[in-house]
Amino acid sequence: MDTVALLSRQPELYSTRRLQQALEDRGFAVLRLAPEEFILGLDGEFTWRHRDVGVVEVAAVLPRVGSPLTQLGARILRHFAAQGRYCLNDADALLAARDKFGSLQILQAAGLPVPRTAYFAHASQKEALLDTLAPPVVVKLLSGSQGVGVNLAESREVASALLDTLLHLQHEAMVQEFLPGRSDLRVIVLGDRVLAAMERRASAQDFRSNLHCGGQARAWDLGVLDAQVQELSRRASAALDLDFAGVDLMRAADGSLRVLEVNPVPSLEGIEKATGVDVAAAVAAWMHLQLESRGRAA
Predict the structure, then answer these.
(1) What is the CATH number of the domain that holds 60?
(2) Are 284 and 19 in contact (CB under 8 A)?
(3) Which domain holds residue 34?
(4) What confidence tens digit (pLDDT) does each residue in 267-287 have?
């Protein structure tokens, strides 16, 4: 029986519980390992220890690390990859996708449509930036999830004050055109297959459509999902070298699509409850297929 290391500090979370159950149902043994409790060693070999386990052979790694643990998670993934273990997703893909501006650079270089965005690192450039990208704008931290660190600035004064505060706190931020719609699409991609999609609609009290910010979700039937949405979602995931991704898309004022961002650790709760699609089982089947192709499987 092969063992999958499930990197998660919160075993009570819906996604963690669903993935663990699906992996066990598929015949895997599952080790739920808190990322911050690893010791990684370099002594001619890549060794590791964890507070909760002794010496154990791990066949694959499934990271469920939040944004604050991105760097730590990437180091752990790189360690296991150096041992020849399959990681869903790997360290480089995780780092690339978690950098909100860097990921947009990669997406645009791949020919994908993204919102007009500007990044700057010094207060001396703030006014010039606001001259070229006039409010209303969205001010975003370069890292974060679930809508945290995302603010709407409807005037130049508000945008300037927000940027001053973030710079004072030494937080990196970017400024993005405001897309006026109150809903976006979350599309789950596994490999080159679109698994599920839902529309997320913002509440009356918030411009953000994230479910953690009070947004509401409804399923989109893949049979009627716009072919362009599916194609852009697959291309966005591939551009960032992700095997598993949540791709967020939104329409601009002219109706054309934009890729907002790509989440390398997408939540399962909203999408499974909205659509009824068993994403966890599909992930477990994918892990089995990847190990089988490498000559080992549960």
Answers:
(1) 3.40.50.20
(2) yes
(3) 3-89+281-293
(4) 999 999 999 999 999 999 999
CA distance linking residue 61 with residue 88, whole number of Å: 6
CB 259 within 8 Å of CB 249: yes
pTM of the model: 0.89
Contact 73, 7 (CB under 8 A): yes
Express each pLDDT in 55-87 by its tens digit: 789 999 999 999 999 999 999 999 999 999 999
Answer yes or no: do 186 and 224 share one domain. Answer: yes
Instruction: Confirm whether 68 is domain-assigned.
Output: yes
Inside any domain, residue 109 = no
| CA separation for the pair 276, 158 (Å, rounded) | 41
Rounded Cα distance, 126 and 165, in Å:
12
Distance from C-alpha of 247 to C-alpha of 235, rounded to nearest angstrom: 10
89 upstream amide cis, omega within 30 of 0: yes
Residues of the chain with confidence (pLDDT) below 70: 144-147, 203-215, 296-298
In a domain, 271, yes or no: no
